[in-house]
Amino acid sequence: MPDFGRLDAFLDREGLDGYLLDADGDDADQRYLSGYDAPDPFRTLYRPAGISLLVRGLEYGRARKDSAATDVRRPVDYDEGGSDDAGDFDALAAFLAEFDVDAVAVPDRFPVGVADALRERGVTVAVDDEGVVTAIRAVKTDRELDAIRAAQRATEAALSEGTRVLADATFDDDRLVHDGEVLTAERLRAVIEIALLERGYVADETIVAGGAQGADPHDRGSGPLPANEPIVIDVFPRSKATHYHADLTRTVVRGEASDAVRERFELTDRAREAGVAAVEPGVTGEAVHDAVCDVYEDAGYPTLRSDPATQVGFIHSTGHGVGLDVHEQPRVGAGGGELEPGHVVTIEPGLYDPAVGGMRLEDLVVVTEDGHENLTTSPIELER
Question: What are phi and psi of 342, to 5 degrees?
Fold first, then answer.
């Protein structure tokens, strides 16, 4: 079970009775606290004494069976007229009153209309500007780590299927051909995403970006894939069962890499190794980022640390947390705080220049009590 001691201490320090969420099951904090997934917004009330849900009538049976709540209520339980409107503010105020809650904390993205309605009904609503639940989520339990490991294994298998297609591709001048058709970014992306779907994972934004497209870190890639040029493949799926993510990037060349590409690849691999080696409890995310920047800057490449306005070189942070969100705490970059055992972070250095293409390598690492564990086993090979 997650340790909610930090949340209890926050509520006690702020003089609040509970923590209230109003969001659907896609909201990671909502899913984490409630243990429940619904397509429409519902209310979760956390108190040190327990977790209570206010859900629409059609979600009532499933919420009682599947959620982490000790109590599940419906708006109709507070309305003699029998209304089942989940937006009934009177019902929400009555729900809070049932559990003796007069003052709640809410996240900074809480619906303003709901907050105003509660204040009009005498409930104190205080915005949590510390992101307490999000910070708690960043420290993974053993169960969560198992889910992330499984996601990473599925991602590696899907990437392997994609790189096999690349390896089987033939050449048509500067383009790649597979099974008699031009191999496009869209087609290779479909191979990877179908492989993930067959394993129970969903990936909607997979990056397959070749040549100059790869020099834009978030260009998903489109059109024919080039021969003899770097192709950045970045896969970050979510489990349909557990909702936990993985994250993995490799850069490959089908054909023969130029000396410039090979030099950048080897340097980026050294930067990846330096970043992974720096991960341990008590070290800041900024220090890990500095270790990566040192490798690039010592080789003469600009980074955002050395030149905040640069558009080439290493132009993003080293990494981020991964869990119910694919981008979550902690930050591995400038301003990143101390890493704790249970944090799961990416280490993803890269070099970018439209004249050469993109170059990124990404591993997924968990902070342990005495160092780190690299959850990634996918090989690092440039040419296919």
Answer: 100, -15
Tokens 């990634």 belong to: 376
Domains in the chain: ranges and CATH: 5-137 (3.40.350.10), 139-374 (3.90.230.10)
Is residue 21 within 8 A of residue 30, CB to CB? The reply is: yes
Q: CB under 8 Å to 320, separation ≥6 — which residues?
A: 327, 328, 330, 331, 332, 333, 345, 346
Instruction: Tell me if 31 sits within 8 A of 21, measured CB to CB.
Output: no
For the four alpha carbons of 257, 258, 260 and 263, in that order, the dihedral sign comes to positive
**CA neighbor of 43 nearest in space, from 62, 59, 24:** 24
Fill in the DSSP letter of residue 78. G
Asked if 85 and 112 touch (Cβ cutoff 8 Å), the reply is no
pLDDT (0 to 100) of residue 83: 54
Q: How much is the pTM?
A: 0.94
The Cα–Cα gap between 227 and 224 comes to 10
Q: What are the tokens at 315? A: 């132009």
The predicted structure's pLDDT at residue 1: 72
User: What's the token pair of residue 178?
Assistant: 């597979």
C-alpha torsion 169→172→175→177, nearest 10: -30
DSSP string, 251-280: EEESS---HHHHHHHHHHHHHHHHHHHH--
3-state SS, residue 58: helix
Average pLDDT, 10 consecutive residues per value, the chain (384 residues): 91 97 96 95 97 95 95 87 61 96 97 95 96 96 98 98 97 93 98 98 96 96 97 98 97 97 98 98 98 98 98 98 98 98 98 97 98 98 96
- Non-local (6+) Cβ contacts of 58 within 8 A are none
Could you tell me where the DSSP H helices lie in the chain? 5-14, 28-34, 60-66, 89-98, 112-120, 132-138, 142-168, 185-198, 259-278, 285-298
The DSSP H or E segment spanning 330 is strand 328-332
Q: Is the peptide bond before 39 cis (omega within 30 degrees of 0)?
A: no
Burial of 142 (0-12, 13-18, 19+ CB in 10 A): exposed
